[in-house]
Sequence to fold (162 residues):
Amino acid sequence: MSLVAFHVYTIIGMDAATFSPRGGEPYFQIAKQITNTAAGGNYQGWKASDGSQSRYQLNDALVSSVYQEFHDAMYQYHRKGLDVMADNPKEAKDEIIASIAKLRSINDRRPNSFVIRTFFDAKADEIQSIFSGGPQVNIVSLVENLNRMAPTKRSNWDQIKF
Fold:
């Protein structure tokens, strides 16, 4: 039950973080309580010692002030970027580029972090699609940042042309 509840609150928190600044915090805190309670069991993924890609590590990043820029970038990417894409695609693309630049600052401090890798696993195809059509924007720094943060998605980034 803890496994399902943890993922439900994490997903709800990620969604809420896209609607308002720091909107996911209450849900991430509940997921943290679930993690702390489940750590008493003998199952993998609930303790700090269970590796760098565990439920514990994901939640720890989501509640840590070190990753506050991640939440700011999520809000900017979704609310100021995707939500205005239909009305003003050029402005939306510029906001998305700026949000990805915020992620770069996290990546510079914490290279190959689990939360950044998770973001690009989910968003690589979407980012490729956004920047493969529509109004032109300067993509030089965008592609550089993407290649630096998510080199395994290079085939996606190579499709971005302008």
Observations:
- DSSP finds eight helices and no strands in the chain.
- The chain has two domains: 2-63, 66-157.
- The chain has a mean pLDDT of 94.
